[in-house]
Amino acid sequence: MTATTDRGLPGAPCWVSLLTGDLPAAQEFYGAVMGWSFRPGTLGEDFSVALMDGKPVAGIGNVARSMGVAVSWTSYFAVEDADTVAARIRERGATVAVGPLSVGHGRAALAADPAGAVFGFWEGETLREWSIGHRGAPAWLELRTRDAFASAIFYGEVFEWATGRPDRCEVRYEDDAVMVRGQGHTVACLRGGGIEAAPDPQIRPRWHVYFCVDDVEKAVEAALAAGGTVAAAPHDSWVGREASLRDCEGGLFTVTGARG
């Protein structure tokens, strides 16, 4: 991490990272589509940090093959004690797949919730200037899952959401979705079927990362030209214009014209 760090709000998203199998190809793709530049990461030659206007946006790690996982964008949540969080995850029938491991000046782990959605958590300092919807960071994080209410209970218990503590995230139920708020703004959304509806078996649970672009259609054209594919064509959603894309190795992400 850089000198501008703090411990982060426990339970709130603190970073996103692409697990890729080809770092140079990933940098070329996202440079073309998102206009990012890159600098070496602090974890070795297999890692880099994506920058927008000189500000950190996301991490890229050339570790998908060595870890035996799919190429994917992963959302990380800040925690005070990685071992405690790992125990809570296991106690609730979910999986801690990797870690917690010492990484740089902190500890990281990868897990999957009971529905199979992969997420990470991080114990250590976080970038102070990185916050959902601000300064080039992702505009939005959304868990698409079969049962949003059940997922809210799981994550709420694991990350201590909705405990009434001022140093924790709060939860609101709006328009059949679970909105997670921290320090005065929305940091994540959990969306599935209706809150009281039966789970939707057609949904493949996953955390989706939304990146803001000036022009969704141009981003789609750039992705296709760079060897990516379109998972969902440009359309108007509840947050604005958006499209879902896969990079040249299949990593799924969404571009949106909405500013957080």
TrEMBL record:
<dbReference type="InterPro" id="IPR004360">
    <property type="entry name" value="Glyas_Fos-R_dOase_dom"/>
</dbReference>
<feature type="domain" description="VOC">
    <location>
        <begin position="137"/>
        <end position="258"/>
    </location>
</feature>
<dbReference type="Pfam" id="PF00903">
    <property type="entry name" value="Glyoxalase"/>
</dbReference>
<protein>
    <submittedName>
        <fullName>VOC family protein</fullName>
    </submittedName>
</protein>
<dbReference type="InterPro" id="IPR037523">
    <property type="entry name" value="VOC_core"/>
</dbReference>
<dbReference type="InterPro" id="IPR041581">
    <property type="entry name" value="Glyoxalase_6"/>
</dbReference>
<feature type="domain" description="VOC">
    <location>
        <begin position="12"/>
        <end position="124"/>
    </location>
</feature>
<dbReference type="Pfam" id="PF18029">
    <property type="entry name" value="Glyoxalase_6"/>
</dbReference>
<dbReference type="InterPro" id="IPR029068">
    <property type="entry name" value="Glyas_Bleomycin-R_OHBP_Dase"/>
</dbReference>
<dbReference type="InterPro" id="IPR052164">
    <property type="entry name" value="Anthracycline_SecMetBiosynth"/>
</dbReference>
